[in-house]
Design brief:
This protein has 271 residues and is α+β, with helices and mostly antiparallel strands. A six-stranded antiparallel beta sheet has the order 2-1-5-6-7-8. Strands 3-4 form a two-stranded antiparallel sheet. A hairpin with a 4-residue loop joins strand 6 and strand 7. The longest helix has 45 residues. The chain is elongated and about 90 Å long.
Amino acid sequence: MSDETGHTEPKGFVGRFLALPADSVPKTLFVAMTLCLVASLIVSTAAVALRPLQITNALKDKQVNILQVAGVYDPEVDVAEAFAAFEPHVLELATGNFTDQFEAATFNDRAAAEDPATSVALDTDPAGIGRQAQFVTVYLLRDAAGDVDKVILPIHGYGLWSTLYGFIALEENGNDIFGLQFYEHAETPGLGAEVDNPRWKALWSGKRLADDNGVLQINVAKSASAAGADHHVDALAGATLTSVGVHNLVNFWMGEAGYQRFLENLKAGNV
């Protein structure tokens, strides 16, 4: 159909759309939506394709942190090769004993903490974690004679802005701290993020969890408690709430709700 000037009117929706000026609102919206769709497809495809690599890198990072907190990390040695010296075990917190209910190599601690079948909601929650897994993966490092040399225990809890995930390494007596470090958090750079500072991490080495009577005394604060320097770690300067969070999470996991039964078994030589 032609108008009085002889121009042919476009037929159909597509024809009328294509005939619109390039800067018209419908064409502008169409181009924007198309670009968004293409971009989302590219991102989604990349995420799926890179997922195996992400999982591999996350596992390697976790292994590096375990090696570091145990004091055996050597950047010149293959991580997988060095990590092979560690024995992973799935621990049942309620009994303090290892369980064969799960495969240690593939057990996912975080997934277990979110699954109602393997976790419990906490009424008393000083660490701010909401739910606690009933099973966790712990790591043993043995000496040449086959005796336990170090025990690596996963810990986590809320700081100021985020949940801090890390490991604490204990000597074979289950009471002397060899090291502590966090591998994931979102605390304030220069303040709470100083949990990553090697000088602060070094303060944990040689500290004792409990006193001679077995009472948990480990303390993160500006000044030492009555229990003395053996149990004291200086709080982070300018990061009071992060320091309180670390104090709470360490005491939670080392106490009755956490690894206490396991540590008693360790001290008794039953591990």
